[in-house]
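Moderator note: this is an archived Q&A kept for reference. The question asked for a predicted structure of one protein chain; the sequence and the answer are reproduced below.
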Amino acid sequence: MTDTRVGVTHTKEAFNGRVWNILGQTYTLKYISEDMMAWYAVLPPGTFVPPHVHLTQDETVAVLTGRLDIVHADGTTPASAGDYVYLPRNLEHGIYNNSGEEAHALFQVSPARKIFDLFENIHNVKEPAVVVQKAGEREIEFSPPR
C-alpha cells in the first residue's frame, strides 16, 4: 500500500484505484505512505463524521467547496471554502455538513497508521455500531452519543 513515487493523482483519479463509500460520503484516496494518508471527500448535505478521537494521528482538512461545521471541546467552528482545519491527536472532534449544499474537502492524517485498513473495512457498511467497533480496533475512538 505504501508508495513513495513522485507523481500527481489527478482530479478524477484515485491513488491505487481506491474509492470508499463511508456513511453516505465518498472518499477518494489521493496518496498514502507510512507518514501520511490523504483523501478527497464529498460530503452530501446532512452527512457527518460523528465525534471521535484519533489516538495516534493528527488530522487536517482543507475545505474546497461548501461549509463544514467542526465540533470540538470549545464549541462549533464553521470552516468554508479556502479554510484549513488542524485537529491534533487526542482532540475529540466531529465534522458536520449542515450547509444544505454538498461540500468537498481534502483530508490528511499523519502518520497513516491503520486508517487505510479502517476505510477498507467500513466501506459500504451501513450500521454505525459496526463502524464504531471497527474504528476502535484501529486507533480511532468514537464518542458515545450525547
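Archived answer notes: Residues 15-140 form a domain with the Jelly Rolls fold (CATH 2.60.120.10).
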